Amino acid sequence: MDLLTLLFIAFALGIDAFAVSLSTGAYLVKADRRQTFRMSFHFGLFQALMPVLGWAAGTGFADMIEAVDHWVAFTLLGIVGGRMVWNSFHGEANDVLKDITRGWSLISLSVATSIDALAVGLSLSLIRVDIAVPAIVIGLVAGLMSLIGIRLGERVSGRFGTHMEFVGGVVLILIGARIVFEHIS
Description:
Helix content is about 85%, strand content about 0%. It is mostly helical. The model is unreliable at about 95 (pLDDT under 50). The longest helix is centred in the middle third of the chain and has 29 residues, at about 60-90.
């Protein structure tokens, strides 16, 4: 596989991570270095590991993955996005998601944004492409796109203020809906 093709694949896979990071940066308003590192690292790590898992699974596991992957991504993004929307209306007293760059929220977002990479890894196994270099490139590109997304999100939140928590939640839900729509159609 040539480098240009690999970069296009990595960029396409990193778009969801970028969009979620953009929403997260806006939600957090001012992400510190740890939050930025955690999100970028986890998104990059999961984007790198999922193609390896898909590649290792081979063809026997493909039908099971394709049947539910979009619903898993939608559910995870819907839960986190729904909580952000809820918090935007109910203020600090009910703020369940103060820092979504930690714990289960981060894991859920990492899995949800990297499900497609699992299918890419499976596809690469079918055309007998060695997975090491693609996995590294996909992970690095996703991590970089996440870093850029968080920083841009911070700038957006400065312009739009407290409404960004609501917008960020809606964006996560819409990303999940888009994933389902793409798999169904």
